[in-house]
Amino acid sequence: MKIGIIGSAGRMGQALVDAIAADGQEYAGGVDKGDDLAALVASSDVLVDFSSPHAIEENLDACVAAGKPIVIGTTGLEERHHFLIDDAARDIPVLQTGNTSLGVTMLSALVQQAARQLGEDWDIEILEMHHRHKVDAPSGTALLLGEAAASGRGIDLKQHSDRGRDGITGARKAGDIGFASLRGGSVAGDHHVIFASEHERIELVHRAETRAIFARGAVKAAVWLTRQKAGRFTMQEVLGL
After folding, report:
1. Which of the four, 12, 74, 113, 179, has the lowest number of CB atoms within 10 Å?
2. Is the same domain home to 40 and 119?
3. Rg from Cα positions in the chain
């Protein structure tokens, strides 16, 4: 399987190259801003994108034009980017996720189940920490976990999201899903999902010790995606959840 990398000079680039080799696949090459994207897409069976939200439209257009599937692990996406992904998914297989780790994928399934089974008297808080260079907050993974919790509750995350507390904020609003972001050092990614009720608390935790876990998951997703028809897919589907 020939796998091309969009955003190859980024922090995930080398990890992806190593993961492609370890999985027995072929590295088709990589591009960054200003490189020949069309040539890479033409020579690849599937693309993995860890570039920038600003490049999403161009990357999707190139893949649609060539009929090539794409895995999008870029975070910091806005609503308009998701509209573009939905549109592209009518023509090609697209897998978009806030985290390609298989462990986080399983965590999101557990969060969804817990949120569905526990009542609204259980408050949900999501705490994440990343390295000092990360530019978006909350992390894409935290938002993915928030969406899993909201889906379990049958609510819209946008309408039940508390992303910052400072000063006299008043009591916690029932039903909200809270987010807190920490930045420092070289932390690859820590995520805690806390379910808190009167007198007891459940904590689901995932700690990423290396970026290699994201690369391995992205390669697994890329190989899986080549067997799919046009549509928009998730990491949970890769694991059959």
Report:
1. 113
2. no
3. 18
